[in-house]
Write a structure and sequence with these properties.
The structure holds two protein chains of two kinds. Chain A has four helices and eleven strands; from the N terminus they run βαβββαβββαββββα. In chain A, the strands form three sheets. In chain A, strands 3, 4, 6, 8 and 9 form a five-stranded antiparallel beta sheet that branches. Chain A has a four-stranded mixed beta sheet with strand order 1-5-7-2, with helices on both faces. Chain A is elongated. The two termini of chain A are 18 Å apart. In chain A, helix 2 packs antiparallel against helix 3. Chain A has a single domain, classed as Aldehyde Oxidoreductase, domain 3 (Alpha-Beta Complex). In chain A, 32% of the residues lie in helices and 37% in strands. By secondary structure, chain B is of the alpha+beta class. Chain B has one domain: Beta-grasp domain (Ubiquitin-like (UB roll), Roll), CATH 3.10.20. The termini of chain B are far apart. The chains are: A alpha+beta, B alpha+beta. The interface between A and B is medium-sized, with 37 and 26 residues.
Chain lengths: 159, 80
């Protein structure tokens, strides 16, 4: 397992190779890319920023949860930071497993948890030149919106 | 005691800084730190009940702080 925040283009082929193993019968690759429209507004690009040390810690915990739940150690995640253009890969997740079912499940688990928990933010650039931070409230797996009072739910889930 | 507060993204823009230092009484909680931050210029636009992390972990407001702790006020996240 490996996770990284990177300030260069994600090397897709490299992370796929990294999870390869003769005992694996299925390899899943998820790539998140910068889309040209969000909430009806045309976009030209975006800046990603992170609380890097905590983001790495959360990603590491997510990978540990996925490994335990879906029984594979062959998971690699890279998330790019900095300024990205349309079509650029912002995140890539490679998962390999003996069987396809758990590979799909683990890939889905990692991206959904990443989007809910990992402290990364994006500043969207619009065609009219304006810029805006976007984001969704952090959520727990089962209980919906996370408040400071329920924050420990995440830690309990991850234990 | 002194603690460090980190601000990110929209919250850093609102306060015009990404880091500040607070002087708190011994036994102060994460909620006490948040209360002080909310008195800073620009902080009135931060939601009343934002997510807080202490030393890189999501924390409850009643978590007691120690000198040197790193507190982060976490805006809605948007990775992926």
């Amino acid at each position: 397992m490996r996770c990284a925040l990177v300030d260069r283009p994600i090397e897709i082929a490299a992370i796929v190779s990294e999870v390869a193993r003769n005992s694996n019968g299925a390899t899943l690759l998820f790539i998140g890319t910068v889309r040209d429209v969000n909430n009806g507004r045309a976009i030209t690009g975006m800046d990603y920023t992170a609380y890097a040390s905590m983001a790495t810690r959360e990603l590491t915990e997510i990978l540990g949860e996925a490994a335990q739940q879906f029984e594979t150690e062959d998971i690699v995640v890279e998330h790019r930071l900095g300024t990205l253009g349309l079509g650029d890969a912002s995140v890539a997740i490679a998962v390999a497993h003996a069987h396809r079912g758990p590979a799909y499940d683990a890939s889905r688990y990692v991206i959904e948890q990443l989007k809910q928990r990992v402290p990364i933010w994006k500043l969207e650039h619009y065609v009219d030149g304006s810029r805006e931070w976007v984001g969704t409230p952090v959520k727990t797996r089962e209980t919906g919106r996370l408040t400071p009072e329920t924050a420990t739910v995440i830690q309990a889930d991850g234990a | 005691m002194t603690v460090t507060v980190l601000l990110f993204a929209s919250y850093a823009d609102l306060l015009g800084k990404n880091q500040l230092t607070l002087d708190l009484s011994p036994g102060a909680t994460a909620g006490d730190a948040l209360g002080q931050i909310q008195t800073f210029p620009g902080a009135h636009r931060i939601p009343a009940n934002p997510l807080i992390a202490v030393n890189e972990r999501y924390a409850r407001r009643d978590q007691v702080l120690a000198a040197g702790d790193e507190i982060a006020i976490i805006p809605p996240v948007a990775g992926g």
